TrEMBL record:
Transmembrane segments: none annotated. It comes from Pseudomonas peradeniyensis. Residues 82-109 form a coiled coil. It comes from the Bacteria. Residues 126-146 are annotated as: Disordered. It is a lipid-anchor. Keywords: Cell outer membrane, Coiled coil, Lipoprotein, Membrane, Palmitate, Transmembrane, Transmembrane beta strand. This is Efflux transporter outer membrane subunit. Residues 126-135 have a biased composition (Polar residues).
Length: 494
C-alpha cells in the first residue's frame, strides 16, 4: 500500500510539469500503476457443517448425478408425461421469466461498470446566435442587426477517470457478484417451480388412484344395495339393512364427487406453472402412479455447492464486501484526464479550417475536504450491510440443513408407517372376506358387514394418502438437496 502511494505521488507530481504531451504520457503512466484495493480480502463466511445428517443413519454418501441425468432430477420418477410437463415449465413459466429478466438487468450493470474503466469519447456540434449591446439604448437600437453573431462549433472530447483507488473495479466486482447472485436466484426459483409442479402432478395421480378405488367401491355398494332390496322384497331382510346399504353407498358417492374439485385444483395449478390458462389445459387420468424413488443423499459440503439459494446468499456477501471498498475510496481524491479539441468559427463556409482550431488537455484532481461525516456514515453502512449478508448466508445454510433433516426424518417415519399401514390393510381385507362369507351363510347381519367394509375402505385410502405424502416428501428432499442444479455449469466462470 505504501509503495503504491509512493508511485502515485511521483506520477501526480509529473502531471503538474511539462507540456500537454507530457500530461498525457504521465496520465497513461498513472493508469498503468497498480491501484490500491480498499475492500477487505474476501473469505467465505464460516458455517458449522456436521460430518453427516443426523437423520441419515444407515445411509451412505451417493452422487445424485448417478441417478439424475444432466440435472433433470424429475426423470427419477420415470414418468414421460411428467417429463414433458416440466420441460414445458422450463420454457414458459412466467415467474422464471421475471427472474431471467432481472438477471439480464444485472448483466447490463456489469457491462456498464466495466465500461467505466475505459476512456469515453464524445462529439459535440453546435450553432449559437448571440448579440451584445453597445452600452446605450439609442445606439443599441440603431445597431441591433449589426450586433448579431453566429458561432459554429465542432468539438471532439476524451475523458478518463483513473481508477487509482480501485473504486471503479470494486464497483464492477460488486455488480458481477450481484449478477451471479441473480443467476442463482433464477436457478432457485426454477427449482422451486419445478418442485411445485412435480408435487402437484404426483398428488393428482394419487387422486386418480383414489378415484378408481372409490368407483370400484361404489359399484360394490350398488350391488349390495340391490341385493338387500331384493331380500327386503322377499321378506328375508329388514328395512334397516336397506337403509344401511343406501347410507353407505351415498356417503361413498359423495366422497367420489369431492375428489373432482381436488383434482381440478392440482390440474389448474399445473397449467399456470406451465404458463397456460387453466381453460386451455387438461390432463387425462392415468392408471399408474410413479414409483417412489430411492433418493441418493449428499453430504453437507456438497449441499453448499448444489443449492442455488445458498450460492446466491454467498454471492451477495461478495458484493457487499466489494461495496466496502467503494465506500472507502470516497476518502481519496478522484483523478480524471480530459482532452478536447475542435473548430470554432463565425462563418459556416470556412468553419473546418486550420486557423479555427482549438484544443485543451489536462488532469483534474477532486477531493472532498469536509462532508460532516457523510463518507464515514457510508462506510459504516456498507460494513453493516456486509454483516447482514453474512448472517443471511449462515441462516440460509442452517435452513438448508434443517430442511434436509426434516425431510429425511419424514421419509423415515413414513416408511415405517407404510409397513404398519399395509399390515393393517391386509388384516382389513382378510376380515372383510371372512365377514362377507359369514353374512352369506346367514350367521351375521348386514350391519356387521357395513362396519367391516368401512374399515377396509378407510385402510385402502390411508395407504394411498400415505403414499401421496411419501412422494411429496421425496420431491421436497430432492429440492432441499439442490435438485439437479450444477453450480459450476450454470454460474459464469470467475
Amino acid at each position: 500500500m505504501n509503495f503504491a502511494h509512493t508511485r502515485i505521488h511521483r506520477a501526480l507530481k509529473r502531471l503538474t510539469q511539462g507540456r500537454g504531451s507530457r500530461l498525457v504520457s504521465a496520465g497513461l503512466c498513472v493508469a498503468m500503476l497498480s491501484a490500491c484495493t480498499l475492500s477487505p480480502d474476501y473469505h467465505r463466511p464460516e458455517v458449522s457443517t456436521p460430518a453427516q445428517f443426523k437423520q441419515a443413519e444407515g445411509w451412505t454418501q451417493a452422487n445424485p448425478s448417478d441417478a439424475i441425468a444432466r440435472g433433470a432430477w424429475w426423470e427419477i420418477y420415470g414418468d414421460k408425461q411428467l417429463d414433458a410437463l416440466v420441460e414445458e415449465l422450463n420454457r414458459s413459466n412466467q415467474t422464471v421469466a421475471q427472474y431471467e429478466a432481472q438477471y439480464r438487468q444485472a448483466q447490463a450493470l456489469v457491462r456498464s461498470s466495466r465500461a467505466s474503466l475505459f476512456p469515453s469519447l464524445n462529439l459535440t456540434t453546435s450553432k449559437n446566435r448571440s448579440a451584445q449591446g453597445t452600452g446605450s439604448s439609442s445606439s443599441s437600437l440603431s445597431n441591433n442587426s449589426s450586433g448579431i453573431r453566429d458561432t459554429y462549433n465542432a468539438q471532439l472530447g476524451v475523458s478518463w477517470e483513473i481508477d487509482l483507488w480501485g473504486k471503479l473495479r470494486e464497483t464492477m466486482n460488486a455488480n458481477e457478484s450481484s449478477a451471479e447472485a441473480s443467476l442463482a436466484d433464477m436457478a432457485a426459483i426454477r427449482l422451486s417451480q419445478q418442485s411445485e409442479l412435480v408435487q402437484n402432478y404426483l398428488q393428482l395421480r394419487v387422486i386418480d388412484a383414489q378415484k378408481r378405488l372409490l368407483e370400484a367401491t361404489v359399484a360394490t355398494y350398488e350391488r349390495s344395495l340391490k341385493m338387500n332390496e331384493n331380500q327386503y322384497r322377499a321378506g328375508v331382510a329388514g328395512p334397516d339393512a336397506v337403509a344401511q346399504a343406501r347410507t353407505q353407498l351415498k356417503s361413498t358417492q359423495a366422497d367420489l364427487i369431492d375428489l373432482a374439485w381436488q383434482r381440478a385444483q392440482y390440474e389448474n395449478a399445473i397449467a399456470v406453472l406451465m404458463g397456460k390458462a387453466p381453460a386451455d389445459f387438461a390432463l387425462a387420468a392415468s392408471n399408474d402412479i410413479p414409483a417412489l424413488p430411492q433418493v441418493p443423499l449428499s453430504l453437507p459440503s456438497q449441499l453448499l455447492e448444489r443449492r442455488p439459494d445458498i450460492a446466491s446468499a454467498e454471492r451477495k456477501v461478495m458484493a457487499a464486501n466489494s461495496n466496502i471498498g467503494v465506500s472507502r475510496a470516497a476518502y481519496f481524491p478522484d483523478l480524471s484526464l480530459s482532452m478536447n479539441g475542435g473548430y470554432s468559427s463565425s462563418s459556416f463556409n470556412n468553419w473546418i479550417e486550420l486557423p479555427n482550431r482549438y484544443w485543451s488537455v489536462g488532469p483534474q484532481l477532486a477531493l472532498t475536504l469536509f462532508d460532516a461525516g457523510k463518507r464515514s456514515a457510508e462506510v459504516d453502512r456498507t460494513v453493516a450491510v456486509y454483516d447482514q449478508t453474512v448472517a443471511q448466508y449462515r441462516q440460509t445454510v442452517l435452513d438448508g440443513f434443517k430442511e434436509v433433516e426434516n425431510y429425511l426424518v419424514q421419509l423415515k417415519v413414513y416408511g415405517d408407517e407404510a409397513v404398519v399401514r399395509q399390515e393393517a390393510l391386509d388384516a382389513a381385507r382378510e376380515s372383510l372376506r371372512l365377514t362377507e362369507n359369514q353374512y352369506k351363510a346367514g350367521l351375521i347381519g348386514y350391519l356387521d358387514v357395513v362396519n367391516v367394509q368401512t374399515t377396509a375402505l378407510s385402510s385402502e385410502r390411508s395407504v394411498l394418502t400415505l403414499l401421496q405424502g411419501r412422494l411429496v416428501a421425496s420431491v421436497q428432499l430432492i429440492a432441499a438437496l439442490g435438485g439437479g442444479w450444477d453450480l459450476q455449469r450454470e454460474l459464469p466462470a470467475e
